[in-house]
Amino acid sequence: MSEHRMKRFKPGNVPAYILLAFASILSIFPFYWMFVMATQPSAAYNSVPPTLLPGGMLVENFLKVLDTIPFFQAMWNTILLCTSVTILVLIISSLSGFAFAKFSFPGKNFLFICILLTMVIPPQLGLIPQYYLISQLGWLDTLFGAGILFLLNPLGIFLMRQYISESVPDELIEAAKLDGCSNFRIYRSIVLPIIKPAFATLGIIVFTLVWGEFLWQFTVLRDPSSYTLQVALASLNNAFRVDFGMMLSGVFWATVPLIVIFLIFNKWFISSITEGSIK
């Protein structure tokens, strides 16, 4: 062990290291078990003792998935939906957060409180009127209808407001105004470069949220050609016989893109958390 690492290692921290290692194992184990079940026949799901080692049926189970549902079409629909919603949420939330953080206008605090209060309303309460509205507009069986409810994100507006308030100095904005910059130019040239870590954090949250959404997508998407992964995977649950190996194989491959997205933006995500803790 190098001298630098020896200085950082303290024997008194051993219990904390053990606890963190145990928590990490608990967090990773469900993903590992899902992978193991994706490589096993369906009977292994109920085996006693449980199977903890991978088998050799990963490809076979996935081929069953491809024969049962349009997996790649559903994945493309999901990626397109999540990417579009995430980009639009980032734009709307950052613009709204910028306005709430750096501008004064009548009813500003009241409007911001109203936006935050929408976070405590269960989404199931609005399911019927929202479905009626989407059906009247002719947006059933469309990705636009499946994603429009997520565009106004109260958590995103709150996060952006807080981050911009703390990270973008008022003096910098005043100096830009003196130089003749418009509000949008200030947002584009000054605010956006500063809030990249917050963008990564909110982007991961929104992408994951939309990717894992089931109830609303299941409600508005009825045509198999418009299915997202969550809706398509739900159709694998046969009422008479459930092939757990096939089902968990589909879930495993549906989880892989989320892991890739997190690994890509992991640096900015951690940077945002660390910066917030330092402040």
UniProtKB/TrEMBL annotation:
A Pfam family recorded for this sequence: BPD_transp_1
One example GO MF annotation: ATP binding
Membrane topology per record: Multi-pass membrane protein
One of the GO BP terms on file: transmembrane transport
InterPro entries: MetI-like, MetI-like_sf
Keyword hit for ATP-binding: yes
Ranges annotated as spanning the membrane: 12-35, 74-98, 110-132, 138-159, 194-216, 244-265
Primary localization: membrane
Keyword Chloroplast: no
GO cellular component: plasma membrane
Sequence ranges assigned to domain ABC transmembrane type-1 in this UniProt record: 75-265
Keyword terms, alphabetized: ATP-binding, Cell membrane, Membrane, Nucleotide-binding, Transmembrane, Transmembrane helix, Transport
UniProt-annotated location(s): Cell membrane
Family, similarity comment: Belongs to the binding-protein-dependent transport system permease family.
Protein's UniProt name: Sugar ABC transporter ATP-binding protein
Biological source species: Halobacillus andaensis
